[in-house]
């Protein structure tokens, strides 16, 4: 781990970038439901796409805490942009960890420069919370893998260059495959219309006799389950970080508003009830931050309780995000209900953090199982 001052320097640099290069477009990205191209260009300035990856593949070896701080600061101004970056990391992750030297050369070099968009394809109609209910199959034929199936709700779909795809390779075994957007047999469903994170494209990814060369298999064809289980323990704190950033952004906006707005001849910020709400929300955010950073440390050090802490952090931070964003709308009065103020968008964006990468109910199942040792 780095020194505390190093993380704070890094936070300041990302915040500066987020406020100057991403925030100005956040409302437009949401309103027009368009991909945050400005954010993608901004990520290049600090080489943020390279942050989580090993120096071996050209990355910066930034630890989970640094990644969380990065996503937290971006989500503070634009949840769509933080999701875009997080999913690029999640899509490239299995390739960087388990890809053959040929694949790493082909994929990671342009990716590290920030020129590549990626997706992670786990969810299916029959396998959302039940990831292992997935029916997409990969069969080995004449030196190639032939993939058939349909993935649902895939972030960055149709915009991504590379797709890391979980597919069944046997009755009870899974593999993970790198599929390129130009591979024959790959197509996309309609773009989903969503409540929040509207600039982030979400669509089905469809595989019809999609053939990929053997070198696109990531690692062992029967170890995909383990690879994905490990990677979810690592990505869950990152969703927690996204949620925390949304909460902080909403509270910051609410504080600004209550200091400016006058009612009954005084600043809204002078009313005792309002001050109590601000104090409660700030306290919850700080509690969420401490749990999140503790889970980052556990994941980084591969501590035995890392998976449980990651689920706790995701569960708690997403609940705090939903509560803080809703209360921040309330603190704005009628203005909070208008799209002129960012808290309306933040409240819609907060909701998804309780759903994706395992719903709150699934996080509770994981935590309860660890507590009850059953
Ligand atoms: C905007 C968006 C982006 C996404 N991006 C991606 C992506 O990039 N890649 C990807 O693979 N997936 C992605 N997802 C999918 C997401 O991870 C799933 O939607 C999520 O895991 C829930 O699965 P489901 O939708 O099938 O819900 P379901 O499993 O149908 O759940 C329905 C309800 O039942 C509850 N439930 C389910 N099982 C249990 C249980 N055992 N006990 C108690 N309650 C239970 C759930 O908590 C929920 O309340 C995305 C989804 C959205 C909406």
UniProtKB/TrEMBL annotation:
SUPFAM superfamilies: Acyl-CoA dehydrogenase C-terminal domain-like, Acyl-CoA dehydrogenase NM domain-like. Residues 5-115 form the Acyl-CoA dehydrogenase/oxidase N-terminal domain. It catalyses: 3-sulfinopropanoyl-CoA + H2O = propanoyl-CoA + sulfite + H(+). Its EC number is 3.13.1.4. It is an enzyme of class 3 (hydrolase). Keywords: FAD, Flavoprotein, Oxidoreductase. Its cofactor is FAD. GO terms for molecular function: acyl-CoA dehydrogenase activity; flavin adenine dinucleotide binding. Residues 223-372 form the Acyl-CoA dehydrogenase/oxidase C-terminal domain. Residues 120-210 form the Acyl-CoA oxidase/dehydrogenase middle domain. Belongs to the acyl-CoA dehydrogenase family. This is 3-sulfinopropanoyl-CoA desulfinase.
